[in-house]
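Contributing new records

If you add data, match the layout below exactly. Sequence lines come first and carry their own label; structure lines follow with theirs. Keep one chain per record. Anything else will be rejected by the validation script.
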Amino acid sequence: MLESQSVEKGELARLHAATCLSMTRFINGHQCPKLAHMIVHQLNQLLTHPELEPVSNARDMYLQMLEHWQKIAAQLLEQQHARKTAAVYH
């Protein structure tokens, strides 16, 4: 039982680390809609992870980050769509 809990907590930590790495890649210049969407997906996974306490500072932080990254992803998709539309008309 203890080993199972340790594995799940390790999974949560790995997911958190992967999300941080994705954000770092984005901030360091790899700003594409796919990466932003992946960050949104990872944040959703963190929020639904069974080891995340329903009422916690971590949950509040992930919710704020999710809202922020959803806006970024939407803006990037809109910009990408605008560039494609402009290219069609030129």
